Each structure stands twice: as structure tokens, then as C-alpha cells.
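Marked as duplicate of an earlier ticket. Keeping the data here for the record.
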Amino acid sequence: MDDPKSEGGRADRGGRVFYGWLIVAVLFFISIIDGGFTYTFSTFLKPLTQEFGWSRAETATAFSLYLLVAGLVLPAWGWLIDHIGARWVFLLSALIDGVALFLLSAVHSLPGFYALYLLLGVGLAGIGPMPVGKVITQWFVAKRGLAMGIALVGASGGGLVLVPLCGFLIAEFSWRVGYQVLAALSLFGMLPLVWFFVINSPEEKGLTPLGQTSPPARRTSPRPEPEQAGRDWTLRQALSTPTFWRLGAAFCLGLMAAGAVHAHQVAFFQDAGYSLEFAATITGISLGMSMAGRFLAGWVSEHVRHPHTILAGCLVMQAVGIGVLLFLESLGFWALALFVSLFGLGYGGMIVLWPLIVGHDFGRQAFGAIAGVLGTLGLSVGGALGPIIAGVLYDNTGSYDWAFLSCVGVFLGGAGAAVGAPEPQAG
């Protein structure tokens, strides 16, 4: 019988591949489905306003509520992840999202629409970058950035595939069919993958994390020893650092602008004269490009000392990408190409850097709690405000020019906050 232990988490004596890489593959497919829930909203925006007579701001408020509640419940999900493991959080969240999406296909009122997007947001928080990051952080010491990039690149793949698919389903059938297909993916795709394959940590399988050559020393106190400070922080310690709050500002501003773009970009392209199918395809391609951004940011993070500078660069790329859309009429194809490339790469890098920076700056001990509170700042404050503000600016001006110009400034403000975030220092 083979010894189940692995040396540094690599392969066991039977020559089998380290199980953590199978989990990375499963998380990749889970992220595809997760990305579909978030990025397809813009394909539903205009059809819903046309059928029910809601304004853009009223309809986009659902997306803001979705991000708001997702951020608010992140600390609770983070606590559960730290105490019962990510596997049960994934399962519960997939069930919640599947039910919410199915009920959305039968919605007839704006309050009902809002209520179901609130429920959908509760589930979103339990299947996004935070729980994925927790699992990857548990399984990988070496190659963590690569593994994180591969796992989270799936969300962009979901946008690449599911945004055009929803555009097709809405155009050929109805928006109700689009929601039903997303519900089926959650209930019959995500749930079985998690149930059969996801394991919280390598220790549960008799393995050690990849790159860890010996088991970590057992602590006699929940508080880190002085020499561990800066590598394994508690939530209270992290909250006392300027690093945490400056990173919170960077992610808050980044997700505010990105949320505005994601909620309105399909409608923007439709207003510019493109069909729903073409607008959804352009959006999907930009999200496909963010796959490369997630992978590259994960890889680069392993080769630089200060990942905060990578985050700043990603925010600047998004600013330039959205800025060129203001010249769409004159630049045409080149504006689309630059938007797809720059915004996609920058957005993908920003998302994967959320869990990577938490792990880099604050360690494993309270990863879920720290990432959860950071996510609350990003999603509940930034992500929730962006879509509403962009909708109000559109309703008041009749175009997205001021909304997207504001996004450029917000992205640049976030880049400044990221550059100014120092390495955390033990008190």
C-alpha cells in the first residue's frame, strides 16, 4: 500500500499527481459558473428595462444590491470558512444561487427583482475569490500565485462563454430562459463538483501543502509569536495597520469603477448601435482577456517583492481601457481592441490580487476573516455604489460619457492608494 504522505506536497510514491492540482481544476470550473452569475447582468439590463419600463438606474440598483450584500456577508462566510471549511460554504452557496436564479426567471416586480438579487449576492460571496483563495492558500506554499491564477481565471472564462450565451438565449428566446440556464449550471454543475472533489486542506488527505517540507510547528497560543508577526496575522492585528486600510481604499475604488462598467457596458454598446449579440460578444471577449490578466498577475506575484505595485498597474490599465471608449465613434475598431485588451487584463489582475495580497501580507491564520472584511470594503462600499451612480448619470445626461469619465478618475485614485500601501509592520 502506498504511503499517502507526500514530500513537500508533490507526488506520492505511486507517482500520482499532487491532489491539489485536481482541486485547482475543480475550482477553475466553479469559477466559470461563478463568473457567469456576475458578468451576465449587463445582458439582462436593457431587455428588463424594455419589458417593465424600469429606468437604467432602477434596474442597475439590483446589481448594486447584489454587490452590497455580497460584501456585507463576506466576513460571515470568512468566519465559516476558517471554522468549518470552504467545502460546506461552496455547497450552501451553490444551492442559494441556484434557487435565486431560478426564481429570477419568474420575477414580475421591481421589489421582487431586488429581493432575489440580494439573495443571489449572499450566495456569490461564498463561491468567489475569498473561498477559492482560502483553499489555494491551504494547499499551496510553492506555486501559490500560479495555482491562484489558474483557479480564478475560470471566472473570466465564465464571462467569455456565458455572457455571449446569455445574449443569444435572450435574443432567441427570452431573458427568463437565460436565468433558467444559469440556475441549472449552479444546481447541476457546481454542486456535484464540490461534493465529490473539493477537500479543505491537504492534512485531511494525509498530505502536506506543495512546497512545505515539514509540518508547521504546533502553536500553544492562538496569538502569533513576535517573530511570526508580519507573516501570520490575526484580524485585529491586520485592522491596526495602515496597509489594510490603504488596500481597502484601492480595492474599494477599483471595484466601484469596475462594477459600473460591468453593469452597463452591454447597454453602452447597444446605445452605440451594436446588436445585443455583438455587444455581449465584445463584453465576453474583454472578460476572456481578463483570464490572461489573472494568470499573469498570479505568475508575476511570485517574482516581485511588492505585489501592491502590480495592483496599481492593473488599476491604471483599466483606467486607460475605459477611457478609450469615450472615443469609440472616432476610433471604431481600435477603441474596441484597446478596451478589450487593457480593461480585461487590468480587471483580471485586480481580482486575483485580492486573495494573493491577503496571503502575502497577512498569512494563513485568519485569511478568511481578513479577506472577508477587505471584500466588504470593496464590494459593499465600492461595488455597490458604482452601478447606481453610473445609472443616475446616464438617466440625467442621456449618455455614458460622464459615467465612464468618472470611472477613469476613480481607477487612478485607487492606483494611488495601492502605491501608497506599505508592507505591514509588526507593532
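See parent ticket for discussion. Residues 46 and 267 are 6 Å apart (CA to CA).
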